[in-house]
């Protein structure tokens, strides 16, 4: 049974929510988007965006209009997708994954770690006389980048396995936002967990823009953590 109560605040929505959450020691803020546009720039630019910029409390976003079953699927048996880019700041999501697992039952929750290696398509720009050795070097560098990503995810997975979680990991290649949206759409995740405003790591994600694209491209609830 979940204990619930209601209070009405007066003032700026974001500021009022932020102060209330801090005063009450709230662990995360759960909110739904509104309007037909779902996770639109307007929505994120107002309350949710302000909370992410001005508060350290994670924001759990649920898209308005999605089937009730999709929301209820966030259960101890649910699958959680965790997005990482290889940077320390993206790992701000990990402690919250651990806390969610404890809340819903670590022995039952399945966690999948995913990162995307983004390689520019330069084949069409290469001169016809470009040495084959250059092409081989580029391919070798890309392979090394993917191996680095795999090693990184294995290390994170090992830590989560040690605390009793069921963990899988996968490295995707291509455009980060498109790959994440497509992968999430092909798998029945209960929740996506990701840190915001990450701009470093082997994938070199511009995580602020990727976050927005993912928000607009999926119907899965998203747990956003502000990185330091």
Descriptive keywords:
228 residues; Rossmann fold; 7 helices; 7 strands
Please describe what this structure looks like.
The chain has helices at about 15-25, 40-55, 70, 95-105, 130-160, 175-185, 205-215, and strands at about 30, 60, 80-85, 110-115, 165-175, 190-195, 220-225. The protein is α/β, with parallel strands linked by helices. The protein folds into 2 domains: about 10-65, Rossmann fold (3-Layer(aba) Sandwich); about 75-120 and about 130-225, HUPs (Rossmann fold), CATH 3.40.50.620. The longest helix is centred in the middle third of the chain and has 31 residues, at about 130-160. The model is unreliable at about 35-45 and about 205 (pLDDT under 50).
């Amino acid at each position: 049974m979940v204990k619930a109560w209601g209070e009405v605040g007066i003032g700026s929505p974001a500021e009022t929510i932020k102060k209330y959450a801090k005063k009450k020691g709230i662990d995360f803020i759960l909110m739904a988007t509104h309007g037909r546009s779902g996770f639109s720039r307007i929505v994120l630019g107002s309350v949710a965006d302000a909370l992410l910029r001005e508060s350290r409390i994670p924001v759990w976003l649920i898209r308005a209009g999605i089937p009730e079953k999709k929301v209820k699927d966030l259960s101890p048996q649910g699958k959680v997708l965790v997005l990482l880019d290889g940077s320390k700041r993206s790992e701000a999501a990990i402690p919250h994954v651990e806390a969610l697992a404890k809340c819903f039952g670590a022995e039952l929750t399945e966690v999948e770690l995913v990162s995307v290696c983004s390689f520019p398509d330069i084949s069409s720009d290469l001169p016809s006389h470009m040495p084959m050795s250059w092409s081989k070097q580029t391919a070798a560098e890309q392979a090394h980048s993917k191996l680095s990503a795999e090693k990184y995810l294995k290390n994170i997975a090992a830590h989560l396995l040690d605390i009793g979680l069921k963990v899988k990991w996968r490295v995707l290649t291509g455009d980060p936002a498109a790959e994440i949206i497509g992968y999430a759409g092909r798998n029945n995740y209960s929740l996506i967990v990701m840190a915001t405003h990450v701009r470093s790591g082997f994938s070199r994600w511009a995580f602020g823009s990727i976050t927005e694209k993912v928000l607009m491209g999926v119907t899965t609830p998203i747990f956003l953590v502000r990185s330091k």
